[in-house]
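Structure in, sequence out. Go:
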């Protein structure tokens, strides 16, 4: 094993964007649905999520954790998985991911471990990322002025949190006006929304208001970008539409999550703005054997001090584990090509791997270590 590969394999990661994992047993249909990000329906009767890049990656990399041979067939994998309690699976996969810190988006947590339960797995420190749309729903349910209620709830929820996040990409996308709205506009929009029940925020004025309140807070602001389920208009989730917003974003770190298939646009933005960062989470898992090429594309334009690691694991603990395994093999392969071509020295490759694996996240989020 080369010094580079040995370093990457031994390096604890900071997973700067992740969700909870399952702790209760699920049936095979739900498991396979959880291996499909884009489809919001049950998979077709003829289909199987095991016949995807992600499904093959599960069989290649997760099977040995369960005591099976690499590439064990789908039925064998599922049969063995059913013999282990879900919470034991979670513990094993998360520990084996070798992650020192999990930065957890708590905005969508139905059926998965909460912060305390994740911490109880003993697989690393757990930190909260607060979702802005959830803050808005709480403000809509409160009495009195909406803006004051939003600020109070945001301050309360973020006292111990490390960042905020918006799913604007799922609530209309990035195309259009993203300037800070006037107070009268906010009050009028809040009244309309409260009159309709104050659930599932889609009002553009209030979404804009939340973004600018998060910028003012100063903690890193995470934004879902690109690939997601079909409720997200992929064209409108291209981060290039954020240009005007980023020009007015000041010094608050803006973290572009996932980015596929817009990793090159995200790389340009990370080069163009001092406060813009990106990762390849979510996509790495779904690209499986093709993830190394994607990771190499992240290294094209983006400054190396602007790239972070994440898995975006949600549900099956295999996703939390695979994100780490595929990233380690992908970054080692990409950097090895640079070294073997004589374009990089191996010490430089090792240093950059450390920045992306943990160093950049510790600096941006103020994590100890």
């Amino acid at each position: 094993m080369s010094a580079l590969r040995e370093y990457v394999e031994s390096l604890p990661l900071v997973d700067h964007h992740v969700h909870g994992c399952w702790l209760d047993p699920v049936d095979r249909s739900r498991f396979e649905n959880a291996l499909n990000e884009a489809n919001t329906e049950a998979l077709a009767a003829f289909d199987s999520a095991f016949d995807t890049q992600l499904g093959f990656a599960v069989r290649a990399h997760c099977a040995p954790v369960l005591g099976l041979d690499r590439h064990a067939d789908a039925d064998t994998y599922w049969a063995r998985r059913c013999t282990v309690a879900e919470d034991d699976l979670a513990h094993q996969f998360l520990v084996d991911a070798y992650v020192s810190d999990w930065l957890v988006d708590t905005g969508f947590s139905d059926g998965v471990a909460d912060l305390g339960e994740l911490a109880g797995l003993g697989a690393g420190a757990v930190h909260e990322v607060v979702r802005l749309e959830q803050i808005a729903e709480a403000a809509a349910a409160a009495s009195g002025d909406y803006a004051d209620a939003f600020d109070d709830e945001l301050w309360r929820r973020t006292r111990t949190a490390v960042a905020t996040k918006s799913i604007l990409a799922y609530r209309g996308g990035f195309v259009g006006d993203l300037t800070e709205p006037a107070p009268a506009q906010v009050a009028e929009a809040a009244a309309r929304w409260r009159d309709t029940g104050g659930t599932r925020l889609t009002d553009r004025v209030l979404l804009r208001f939340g973004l600018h309140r998060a910028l003012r807070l100063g903690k890193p602001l995470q934004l879902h970008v690109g690939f997601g389920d079909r409720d997200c208009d992929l064209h409108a989730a291209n981060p290039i539409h954020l240009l005007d917003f980023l020009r007015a974003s000041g010094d608050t770190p803006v973290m572009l999550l996932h980015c596929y298939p817009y990793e090159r646009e995200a790389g340009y933005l990370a080069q163009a703005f001092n406060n813009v960062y990106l990762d390849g989470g979510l996509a790495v898992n779904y690209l499986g054997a093709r993830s190394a090429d994607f990771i190499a594309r992240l290294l094209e334009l983006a400054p190396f001090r602007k790239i972070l690691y994440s898995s975006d694991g949600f549900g099956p603990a295999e996703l939390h584990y695979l994100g780490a395994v595929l990233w380690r093999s992908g970054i080692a392969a990409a950097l090895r090509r640079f070294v073997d071509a004589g374009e990089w020295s191996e010490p430089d490759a090792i240093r950059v791997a450390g920045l992306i694996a943990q160093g950049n996240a510790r600096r941006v989020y103020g994590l100890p270590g």
